[in-house]
Every structure is written in structure tokens, then in C-alpha cells.
Amino acid sequence: MAPFQSVMYKSMTSPESIIIPAHLLPRDGRFGAGPSKVRAAQLDALVADAPTYMGTSHRQSRVKNKVGEVRDGLRTLFTLPEGYEVLLGNGGTTAFWDAATFHLIESRSQHLNFGEFSSKFTTAATLAPHIGTPEVISSEPGTHPSPVTRDDVDLYAFTHNETSTGVQMAIRRPENATGLVAVDATSAAGGLLVDPKQFDCYYFAPQKSFASDGGLWLALCSPLAIERIERLAASSRWTPEFLNLKTALDNSRLNQTYNTPALATIHLLASQINWFNENGGLAFSAGRSSRSAEILYTWAEESDFATPFVRNASERSQVIGTIDFAEDIDASVIAKVLRANGVVDTEPYRKLGRNQLRIAMFPAVDPEDVASLCASINYIVGSL
What we know:
Elements: H1 3-10, H2 40-53, H3 61-77, E1 85-90, H4 92-103, E2 109-113, H5 118-127, E3 135-138, E4 155-159, E5 161-162, E6 167-168, E7 180-184, E8 201-204, E9 216-221, H6 223-233, H7 245-252, H8 263-278, H9 282-302, E10 306-308, E11 320-325, H10 331-340, E12 356-360, H11 367-383
């Protein structure tokens, strides 16, 4: 803590005792990067269906129809071309990274590393003994690197949105590349626009923009990705059954998962997808995030004590905003005051180690609440 801060805080009451006026506070104070805000309408729908849905067999029509609703809804939401399929399985994105080393990477992959989460797939591929050492292209936090087309690369691993740093990258196939394009869209899917013709596998989990819980992965796969999965599964490459993407493909076509899923997670996910599609699809959901981002970044740019961490405006995430604070303002104190007033999960990503706040702007978050959050921060800083 800077000397000015220590003197300032000693001369006032405890920061946690600051009471933000009710008219400044967001109506809903959840701004976490995941698990994210869940809309009341999703929970109401789950409660209404609970007597005949919760606690029932996931192999029976009641649950399989809900899985089918999710798969059909995602096809509509992302306007998937002919031949693209929606796969799902248990374990979340972490499990999918391991699965991809068996049935998406044939020999060698290239990975773009620009934060904590984009590096995790790299680690999985590096440790896998049955494939070659991946090529890694990195950049400093707050930026993203660009791919380089290689003849010996059969999978390009991108991250649509880096959750740890608040950087997003446009998804485009590398020029003249023949390898598959696999995109980690865990915090991007549903909140950012994307052209499915630019990817072969767009995978994510439901606890971000889809306002559900974790433990499930979903993947939008092109015919080329399906062919790769089926061919590698038919080879002599040993694969743990839980990580077998051919098993996930076969079960997904039956609207089920290999092992028992969390039924509430699937129901909440289906409700959110329906909400998106009923209101205009991806243009609606991404539009809500875009409006929230416009409010947040405009406030930070006009502030005399805050600034967007990502310097390049085109790379600033529309779903995860990272805001740096001046040295004489302790962002951790602001986060504590906000939490004491019911505004939660604005703390920065722990490993980044910056004096900043990280604010989720997923579609479920009302843009008006982002504006109220900015007003609340102004009040806190004024009080300090």
C-alpha cells in the first residue's frame, strides 16, 4: 500500500463501514466471472419443472428432451452450417482440454498463450506423451498474439476471450492453414459474436454467459472435426473412456451424456439459450454485453483514477472488463467496500497481481447495473 493510502485510511472510519446510498447501488450486485449471475426466470422455470424433472433418470425422455432442446437451441443461436454438430460431456472445459489431446490433435498443435486460461490447453498438450511438442506463441498480459501458418500443425488452439486479463481476439482461420481451428470459448460463447465458418471446434462451459453451473462442456464441431474425432478413435491410440470424444459424439447424437450429468445445470442452460433465441439470438445476447462494455470503458476512460487495463480498444473484452486504478487508490479496498454493500466478485484475477477490478458483463448482467456499479465506485473513491 502506498504511503498516501496508509495515512488516508488511518484518518477515517473503516472502509468496510462505508454505506453506498441505495439509489446508487446496482439492482443486482453479482459481477462474478463465473459462476455468473443466474436470472430469476431461469430458477423459476427450474422450480416449476422440478417435480417431474429433478431426480429422474437422465436416460429417459424427460431429460433427453431437455438435452435435445439445448443442442437445437445452440444450432439456432450460432446459425451452425450444415454438418456441424453439438457435442456435450461432463467435466467442464478442463476435461475437454485433455480429451482434445486424444481426438482433436493428431500430431502437433499451435497454441496462442495470453493469460492463465489460454495456457492450460498448452500445458495439457505439452504433457501428453502421444503427440508432438506443441508450438507456443505468447504475448504479454493485456494483449494477444497472432497465429502463424505451419505445414506441420494440424490444430490451431485459440482463445476467444481470456478470462484472466479481459482480452478478446477475433476468430479467423489462419491464412492457407489446413489444420483444424479449435477455440476455447468458455467465457465468450453467447456474449461475443463469432462466425462458425471460422472454426472447427468452438467449446465452452455453461457457467459464464449461459448463466448456469459448471461441470459440463459443450462443443460446436464442424464436419472436419467430426471426421478427425472418428478417425483417431478408430486408430490404435488408447483413450480413457471418459475423455473419448467419439463416445461423447455417439451419446450426444442420442441427446445424452456418457455418465450422469447435473440435471439442474442442463435446465438452467436451456432456459438461457431460449431467452437468447426468443429475443433475437446472438445479436441480442452479445449486444447486451457490448452495451455494458461501452458503459464500463467509457467511465474508466473519463475517470481521473481508473483506466482500462487493455490498451488496444479493439482487444478489450465485451464480457470481462479489467480496470486498473491509480497507485494512490487501493482496488482491493474498493472491492471490500462493494462486497460489504452487496456488490460481489469484482476482485481481480489473483495470479495477475494488478491493482485492478475485474467485472463480468455477461448477457444476464443488466447494462443499467454496470452503470450503477460505476457510480458506486465513484462514491467509494470520493468517500476515501
